[in-house]
Amino acid sequence: MSKKLITVIASSIAIIAGVLLVAFADTRGTAPELTCAEAGAPTSGFRDAAQGDCGVTSESFNEYAKWRSQPQPLKIVGLAAAVAGVAGLISVAVVAGVQKSRR
C-alpha cells in the first residue's frame, strides 16, 4: 500500500470517528429537574412549560445552567479528529497536485 492510500484511509476514519463523537457523545448525564416556585416566591425569570408554565426557582435553574455548560471532552476530541482528518486529506491532495505538476 502506498503512503497516500494509507493517509487517505486514516484521514477518512478520523473524520468518520470525529463526526460520530461530535454527534453522539454526551458525558453530562441526565438533566436535573427544574423546580416550580411557590406562589409569591421569587423566581429565576424562566418558565418551565413541561410543568404547566410555572416560574422556576433560581436554585434549580442555576443547577440546570451548570449542567448545561459542562465541558464535553469527547466532543472536543471528536472535533479535533475531524479537523485532523480533513487536514490529512488536504495534504494528500496538495502533494498529488505538486507531483502531477512536476511531470
Molecular structure report:
The chain has 103 residues and is mainly alpha-helical. The protein has two domains: 1-27 and 72-103; 28-71, no CATH class. The protein is 61% helix and 4% strand. The chain has helices spanning 3-24, 58-68, 73-102; strands at 47-48, 54-55. A two-stranded antiparallel ribbon has the order 1-2. Strand 1 (47-48) and strand 2 form a beta hairpin. Helix 1 packs antiparallel against helix 3. It is rod-shaped, with a radius of gyration of 24 Å.
Outline type: rod-shaped
What would the average pLDDT be, to the nearest integer? 90
Indicate the percent of residues in helices.
55-70%
Order of helices and strands: HEEHH
Secondary structure tally, helices: 3
How many structurally independent domains?
Answer: 2
Question: Total strand count, please?
Answer: 2
Helix/strand/pairing category:
mainly alpha
Strand content: under 5%
What Rg is obtained from the alpha carbons, in whole angstroms?
24 Å
Distance between the termini: 22 Å
Note poorly predicted spans: none
Q: Main sheet?
A: 2 strands, antiparallel
Largest sheet: spatial strand order: 1-2
Primary descriptors:
3 helices, 4% strand, two-stranded antiparallel ribbon, 2 domains
Please write out the topology.
Elements: H1 3-24, E1 47-48, E2 54-55, H2 58-68, H3 73-102
Antiparallel strand pairs: 1-2
Helix pairs in contact: 1-3
Quick rundown:
The chain is mostly helical and 103 residues long.
